Amino acid sequence: MEKPKKQRIQIDVGNTVVDNEMFIPNKTSDNARKVGDQNLEIFFEIWFDKHLSVRQQFGDDNGKRIGISTDEILPLVKDLFIHIIYFTLEFDQFSFLKQEKRIVIKDGIKNIEEPLHIVLEIHSKCIDNKTIFEITVKTAMCVYDFKMKDG
Fold this sequence. Notes:
The protein is of the alpha+beta class. 20% of the residues lie in helices and 24% in strands. The chain has helices at residues 50-58, 70-90, and strands at residues 43-48, 103-107, 116-127, 130-142.
């Protein structure tokens, strides 16, 4: 004779009790309890160097800089914020606040065959007890053979 199946207990998720005193795994420990959290505001200012504007308006030996405008550059720089903070916290070798260091971001833009390279510097400043990260876009180029050099 077959045993009757046990009736499953249905749990209403809306009534689930969360035990804030319980120790659970996190990324560092198998036994940890969350005791608080903090939401921080991080302020970024975006600046465009005059060199970039001159290249946009007049070009250089290679001609005008087609496709390099505020409309293309600004969203890419804004999308960069969360990534630079993540890499700074995750990797010891990377810090976006080192003096005299430049960051190059690379992106392909629709209707442009060559990839866009954006060169920027990030510095911090303190105004009225608020830290502000100042991002200055130094230049942008659509080229395959992009190389960093001074000047």
